[in-house]
Specification:
Layout: E1 2-9, H1 20-35, E2 39-42, E3 46-50, H2 56-63, E4 69-78, H3 83-94, E5 101-108, H4 117-131, E6 136-137, E7 144-150, E8 155-158, E9 162-166, E10 175-179, H5 185-195, E11 199-206, H6 213-230, E12 232-239, H7 241-250, H8 256-274, E13 279-281, H9 294-301, E14 308-309, H10 317-326, H11 330-333, H12 355-362, H13 367-376, E15 379-384, H14 387-394
Parallel strand pairs: 5-6, 5-7, 10-11, 10-13, 11-12, 13-14
Antiparallel strand pairs: 1-3, 1-4, 2-3, 4-8, 4-9, 7-8, 12-15
Helix pairs in contact: 5-6, 7-8, 8-9, 8-13
Length: 395
């Protein structure tokens, strides 16, 4: 009997040695959450999924969006180890495949099998050449590799794999809070943080009536894109209007952005602590705007003690845009709705702010009470991504 299965290669997780089982358990749980009602077996080398026949394409589509998987390999399990039956099965599976060159790889896990791997490889290669016309063996650059594994109880046959996302399973390295704006950079930073095993929540600063409902809807759409990789995402919405207006009225305009970012950092740090997030994540890229010079970043960062991770800090804009297009956030990010980081940008923001000046100017506003009220009145929603609906739209 021939059975369709999927097996997964771990890639980077294979280097974890003593901690590998910890990561594999989390990966197993993440896959179970995404797939529902499938049989999963795993060992230190690979993970095996037994899918229902009609769900195979959907399962592969879901697996493509799960971090911790290096390669997704559709395969076949044959419960008969008779050599002639294996040959006939391989030949049958090759029907309909278009290829001019090939090579055969044989792995013999069952060391009691009477023929060694090298002789099996030659035998299978000769059999295929005899039964399919106009083929050549190419061991260096074949258009098709035929993999046959002789296992203790069955035979595993597979061809090409599908590249996975790699990285670490989501939540294996703890939780982070993403400062999510409506721009291009912060969703990319979030994606890269998720790839390193960080389970994200997000914080968004709105400033009605200066920012619109359309701007908030844009951020919700970006959060939904990230939820595809993050399982789901909690979005904390902070009303920043009072703080922003007080800054605008009382602070010298060249320091508006610096002071505003310091307030955002303070709020994010308090919320991160309450949500048990170990780090703040944002989309700052060195030198891209006035608040992202090294001096500005240092002065802004000084108001918090929690670590701040900037995954795109050393990327240029074109590199960030390339990733944004890959993860399908770019078209949403360029929608023309301003966020509160852009509505009050001064003509000449300071690029080398002084900490002493910031402390002096912050005494002009009662920011502690405003921060307390902003956090007290935050709104939180949980956003999910339903890939089943998206998949059905493609059919």
């Amino acid at each position: 009997m021939l059975k369709k299965i999927i097996f997964l290669k771990y890639g980077e997780l294979s280097t974890k040695k003593d901690n590998r089982n910890f990561f594999l358990k989390i990966l197993n749980n993440n896959i179970k959450k995404a797939l529902n009602d499938v049989t999963i077996n795993y060992d230190y080398g690979r993970m095996f999924i037994i899918p229902k026949e009609d769900e195979l394409p959907l399962i592969i589509n879901k697996l493509k969006n799960i971090f911790g998987i290096h390669e997704i390999v559709p395969a076949y399990l044959l419960d008969n180890k008779d050599l002639e039956i294996i040959k006939e099965t391989v030949l049958d599976l090759l029907k309909g495949k278009k290829f001019q060159t090939f090579k055969v790889e044989v792995k013999r896990s069952d060391k009691n099998y009477p023929i060694n791997s090298m002789d099996l490889r030659k035998d299978f290669g000769a059999y295929i050449l005899k039964n399919i016309n106009n083929l050549k063996v190419d061991v260096n650059n074949p258009s098709l590799t035929i993999n046959i594994e002789i296992r203790v109880k069955e035979v595993l046959i597979y061809f090409d794999g599908i590249k996975g996302l790699g990285g670490y399973p989501v939540s294996s390295l703890g939780k982070g809070l993403l400062m999510l704006s409506g721009g291009i950079d912060s969703p990319v930073a979030g994606y890269l943080a998720i790839k390193r095993g960080i389970k994200l929540e997000a914080i968004y600063f709105e400033s009605p009536p200066h920012t619109s409902e359309a701007a908030l809807d844009k951020v919700k759409k970006l959060a939904k894109k990230l939820a595809l990789y993050n399982n789901d995402i909690k979005l904390h919405i902070i009303n920043f209007t009072e703080i922003q207006e007080e800054i605008y009225k009382n602070i010298p305009h060249e320091y508006l952005i610096t002071i505003m970012r310091r307030m955002m950092y303070r709020i994010s740090a308090i919320l991160a602590s309450r949500e048990n997030a170990k780090v703040i994540v944002n989309g700052e890229s060195i030198g891209q705007v006035a608040s992202q010079t090294l001096t500005s970043m240092k002065v802004i960062n000084e108001v918090v003690s929690i670590p701040v991770i900037r995954p795109v800090a050393c990327f240029d804009k074109l590199e960030i845009i390339e990733i944004a297009k890959k993860i399908d956030t770019y078209d949403v990010s360029i929608l023309p709705y301003e966020d509160c980081c852009t509505i009050f940008v001064p003509d000449h923001p300071v690029i080398n702010p002084l900490k002493e000046k910031c402390l002096e100017y912050e005494k002009l506003i009662n920011y502690e009470d405003m921060i307390y009220n902003a956090i007290k009145n935050k709104k939180t929603i949980t956003i999910t991504h339903n890939i089943e609906e998206e998949f059905q739209d493609l059919l």
